[in-house]
Amino acid sequence: MYKLVVFPEKCHGCGNCVVSCPVNAKDPNTWGGKGPETDELVIRVVDGLITIVNGDLCGGCGACVEVCPVDAIKLVVEKQ
Ligand code: SF4
Ligand code: SF4
């Protein structure tokens, strides 16, 4: 199992991660970086900083990690 970890102090709010996430993409209103006001998202930009909305929905694909230019997102292996 992978756990999503974010580092808001590094984030500059570009929104790359929000639009790259395939779970977020199920909602057609995921655009412009922020993401819609729903709990069916993994991540959203809130007040300019990356925020985990519902980490349980994350499938661990790593797309958000790849597109973040400042390494503000990591996937860590969780011990069972
Ligand atoms: S690892 Fe994949 S599913 Fe999880 S938040 Fe990032 S892009 Fe979305
Ligand atoms: S976590 Fe990275 S990709 Fe996501 S909004 Fe912040 S800087 Fe952009």
Question: Could you describe the 3D structure shown?
Answer:
By secondary structure, the protein is an alpha+beta fold. The chain has one domain: Alpha-Beta Plaits. Helices cover 12% and strands 22% of the residues. It is built from 2 helices and 4 strands. The strands form 2 sheets. Strands 1-4 form a two-stranded antiparallel sheet. It has a two-stranded antiparallel ribbon with strand order 2-3. One iron/sulfur cluster binds next to helix 1. It holds the Pfam family Fer4_7.
Map the helices and strands.
Elements: E1 2-6, H1 16-20, E2 43-46, E3 49-52, H2 63-67, E4 73-77
The chain binds iron/sulfur cluster (2 copies).
Summarize the model shown.
By secondary structure, this protein is of the alpha+beta class. It has one domain (2-77): Alpha-Beta Plaits, CATH 3.30.70.20.
> Could you say how many structural domains there are in total?
1
Largest sheet: 2 strands, antiparallel
- Poorly predicted runs are none
What is the total tally of β strands?
Answer: 4
Strand content: 15-25%
Domain 4Fe-4S ferredoxin-type: 2-31, 49-78
InterPro entries: 4Fe4S_Fe-S-bd, 4Fe4S_Fe_S_CS, PSI_iron-sulfur_center
Pfam family, one: Fer4_7
GO molecular function: 4 iron, 4 sulfur cluster binding; metal ion binding; oxidoreductase activity
